[in-house]
Fold this protein.
Amino acid sequence: EPPYHIVTPVMHLSRQDVSRTFQEKLGAPPTDSAEELTMIARRQLRQDFLTADMGVTGANFAVAETGQIALTENEGNIRLTFSLPRIHVAVVGIEKLVPRVADLALFWPMLAHSGTGQAITGTCSLVGGPRRDGEPDGPEEFHVVLLDNGRTRLLADVAQRDALHCIRCGACLNACPVYRTIGGHAYHTTYMGPIGCVITPHLRGRDDWAHLPYASSLCGACAEVCPVNIPVHRHLLQNRRNTAGGWQRLAFKFWAWTVQDPLRYRWAGKFLRCAGPFAKLWTDTREWPAAPAQSFRDWWQKQNPHPNPLPYTARERGLKKISSPPSLGGEDQGEGESRSS
C-alpha cells in the first residue's frame, strides 16, 4: 500500500487496522494496544535490519560543504537502515543540496515545526561515508545517487523554479481542504496534496498528470502555511495553463465570454440544466448532480418581486431607473416635486 501522507504515511489506519495487518502478515495475536503493536513491529523489523545486505534511504538535505547527507525521523528506523546493512545507498533529489552544515540549524527545526509541530524531531543524523577502521557500526559501502528526473527542466523555468524549494514538510497537505476530503491515495502518485500537484507533472510528465492541478479549490491555504513561501496556488494555475489543450483553451475563453454578461450567464444556466444526458465526457468519471427546476435568481425574484419592475435584461446589465429624490421640504411641497442641490 502506498503512503497516505508525506510525513505520516499510515495516518489513515486505526490501531485495529494495524492489528489485522499484523495478524495476516506476521501471525501476531490481535491487540488494540499501541505499545504492543509497536513491540510486534520492532521484533520483526530488527531481524530484517540485521539480515539485510543493503539499506536504501533518501535524504532530507545534502550538505555540499562536507559531502554529508542529513536525515531526520522520529522512529529510528532510518538510522537502523543505514547503520546495520553492509551497503547504504542514499537516493537524493538534486534540490536537497544546501551549502553549509550551519544551514541545518535553520532547516531542521523548520521541517520539524511545519511537519509535526515539534521543536526538533527525535532523531537527526549526519552520514558522511562508510564505516572507518575501529568503528563498531555503519556500512562497509556508502553510495549517494543524485536524482534529476526532470528537476533541471523545472529549474530552468523561471516562473516555477521556486517549487524546488519544497522541504517536504507536509504542511500544505494538512491545510488543503481537497486533500483532507479525498485522502492521499486518490492522487496515485508519490507526492500527493497541493505540492504534489505542482511538481508531479514536471517530474513525471505533463501529459499523463495534467489532471492533478485541477485537484484544488485555489483557496490559497497551502501558500499561507508553506514555511518556504512557495505560492502553491499560483503554480497550480500555471500548471493548468501549461497543460491546457486547444479545446480546453477554447472552452475557457467561451466561459469567460459567458460570465461577462448577466444575460448570457442566465441562458448558459438554462442550457446546463438540460445538458445532463449529453455531458458524456464529464459523466464517464463523475456523477452528474440533479439540476434544480429553476435558478436561484429566478426563485429569488419570485419571492421578492421588484417594486418598480424593469425589463429583465436592463436590470441584469446594472441599469437603474432614474427617479426623483424624496421631498426634503415641508408638507406644502407636492409629492412629485424635488429639490435640486
